[in-house]
Amino acid sequence: MSYDSYDRDGVTIPTAEITVRELVLLSPPKDGGGEAEDES
User: Fold this and answer.
1) Alpha carbons 1 and 23: distance in angstroms, whole number
2) Nearest 10 degrees: CA dihedral of 36, 37, 39, 40?
3) pLDDT of residue 32
4) Model confidence over 10-39: pLDDT tens digits?
5) Residue 21 pairs with which residues in a beta bridge?
6) 0.70 exceeded by the pTM?
7) From the centroid of its chain, how far is CA 13?
8) Given this model, what pLDDT does residue 24 score?
9) Taking the mean position of all CA atoms in its chain, how far away is CA 18?
């Protein structure tokens, strides 16, 4: 995570950049789970 800020109209606005390397779901999705299917 890195922090930065920029000025807009004389106001300093803080920002943060977050880099996610891995996402772990602790509970199944409410829609039943599984891969999304393409209905072309």
Assistant:
1) 15
2) 100
3) 65
4) 999 999 988 889 988 888 777 766 665 666
5) none
6) no
7) 19
8) 86
9) 8
Which are the contacts of 19, defined by CB distance < 8 A and separation ≥ 6? 1
Listed residue (3, 37, 36) closest to 17, CA to CA:
3
pLDDT at 30: 78
CB-based contact 2:17 (threshold 8 Å):
yes
Positive or negative torsion for Cα 9, 12, 13, 17: positive
What is the mean predicted confidence (pLDDT) over 2-13? 89
Residue showing tokens 């509970």 = 27
- DSSP, collapsed to helix, strand or coil, labels residue 26 as coil
Distances from the Cα of 40 to the Cα of 4, 32, 37, angstroms? 43, 21, 9
